Amino acid sequence: MSDLFSKFDPIIAQRESLLQAGLTDPFNLVMEKVESPTVAICNGKRTILLGTYNYMGMTFDPDVVAAGKKALDEFGSGTTGSRVLNGTYSGHRAVEQALKDFYAMEHAMVFSTGYQANLGIISTIAGKEDYIVLDIDSHASIYDGCALGNAQIVPFRHNDLEALEKRLKRIPEGAGKLVVLEGVYSMLGDVAPLKEMVRVSKENGAMVLIDEAHSMGFIGEHGRGVAEAQGVIDDVDFIIGTFSKSVGTVGGFCVSNHPKFEILRLVCRPYVFTASLPPSVVATAATSIRKLMDSADKRAHLWENSKRLHAGLRQLGFTLGTNEPQSAIIAVIMPDLEKGAAMWEALLNEGLYVNLARPPATPAGMTLLRCSLCALHTEDQVGEILGMFAAAGRATGCIS
Length: 400
Ligand SMILES: Cc1ncc(COP(=O)(O)O)c(C=O)c1O
Hints:
Elements (H helix, E strand, L loop, with lengths): L8 H12 L12 E4 L2 E4 L2 E5 L12 H14 L14 H14 L3 E5 L2 H12 L5 E5 L4 H10 L2 E5 L4 H10 L6 E6 L1 E2 L4 E2 L2 H10 L3 E5 L14 H4 L8 E5 L9 E5 L7 H4 L1 H4 L6 H14 L3 H21 L12 E6 L2 H14 L1 E2 L1 E3 L9 E6 L6 H18 L4
Parallel strand pairs: 3-14, 5-6, 5-7, 7-10, 10-11
Antiparallel strand pairs: 1-2, 2-3, 4-12, 8-9, 11-12, 13-16, 15-16
Helix pairs in contact: 2-11, 3-11, 4-5, 6-7, 12-14, 13-14
């Protein structure tokens, strides 16, 4: 019998060699207690959280928590069914209405995760005869959606407008075309030139889907994302998003103005063949989304945090993923995995949690320490964070 697990041997060996060197496993950390969106207890120690997707700090919002408790009492712990059978409660309709209001769009469809939203929408609208043109650094859920639908995949170089245009022009006349882009790319925290990319896509007869997972709630005047900030939201056919980041719970969605959109509820397999979200989750999501509509002050504070951290890290001598802060994600580039893991552990010992990101999740084989800020980080906390980076950076030789 051949061992189907032998393909994992290289990654098993790499992990073992890191752990044998005495390092804490960076992918196995336990949050023993979570005190707030910015502080948890890890290994018995107070730890500032700088590696969550809790951009708008909604997880402990009293109204959000109260809505979840009320729904749990009134509707029970789960729906035990698909949206198309017994799994649509009034709360599912309410969260879809909140999304329609948030984005000012006609249709909203909620999935059990953002991963499933990409999987479902992309695989259902782009099939075997169709072409999907996508940024090469797209999220795994986008690639998996393309694979599930069996469409022809045409990747282009990250954020390269000319490359996108060239690929589009090569597609046979009359073929179905979907361009898939992200507002913020989550590894480096850089923003896509959506204004030009959406224009070029439309000029070449393509439909456009934008994944705004990392910009919802924060970027754009109303927090609708990069398409809003760059003035092209009305030309976008589908926006994909998630409840697992700024909204502060779990779930995914697609919003659209396409007149035939509702048919997707019957033909989209990752929507039909899975259980719907629990009532408590949709209640927290709806409350959070409505509060995010009115969060201009928090958005402004989050920008201040992002600018302060970016400038401070740069001044300390770290190499960053972007020249300017473009989102709530600031990526610190490490020379290799060993140094990255050592720096990650040194930060944890200082009392700071960040994400260690490595290939294949990262572009160009990079190892990154990914910092994601929260609107509830105080100015003092950002100062503390910079102090920890200075100490850990010097201890590990990452900076002098
Ligand atoms: C760009 C992007 N799209 C989709 C997802 C999936 O979201 P979810 O956590 O809701 O499955 C993520 C998650 O990290 C993401 O970064």
